[in-house]
Amino acid sequence: MRTILYWFVQLTWGLPLNVIGAAIALVLLISGCRPQRFGYAIYCETGKNWGGVNFDGFFFVQKNASTQLKAHEYGHSFQNLMLGPLMPFIVTIPSAIRYHYRNHLRAKGHSLPPYERFWCESWATRLGNKYDKVK
Asked: pTM of the predicted model, to two decimals?
């Protein structure tokens, strides 16, 4: 029942980013990536040394990703359940901008604060760790 409720809310309140996630998952499936489940979400592992990205009920991580990284990306799906259509503006876009800015600074040799210092990233990790245990 919880899985049905999770996906009902994802595909109504949180539909926009889930459509993008489903399209990416379909392309990866066609290219040979085997989707897996993490909690209620669907994810694929692809590429090396890049981290992960979340499109609500779907997330994508580097090959051999740690459980910690998967739980973090899974946590973003619960942010979507709470924020719905505001998710792209409150979490997704700011997080993506910050990710690329950090990579730019890292390439220039700058020391960076912990990734979790950004409020929506620490929130995603807390949610992922909490709900990873709920099946």
From this structure: 0.90
Task: Tell whether the torsion through CA atoms of 56, 62, 65 and 69 is positive or negative.
Answer: negative
CA angle 71, 18, 23 (to 5 degrees): 105
Q: How far is residue 49's CA from residue 51's CA, in Å, rounded to a whole number?
A: 6
Name beta bridge partners: 44: 60
pLDDT in tens, the chain (135 residues): 788 999 999 999 888 889 999 999 999 999 999 999 999 999 999 999 899 999 989 999 999 999 999 999 999 999 999 998 999 999 999 999 998 898 888 889 888 888 888 999 999 999 999 987 654
Residues across the chain: 135
Cα–Cα distance between 99 and 116 in angstroms, integer? Answer: 12
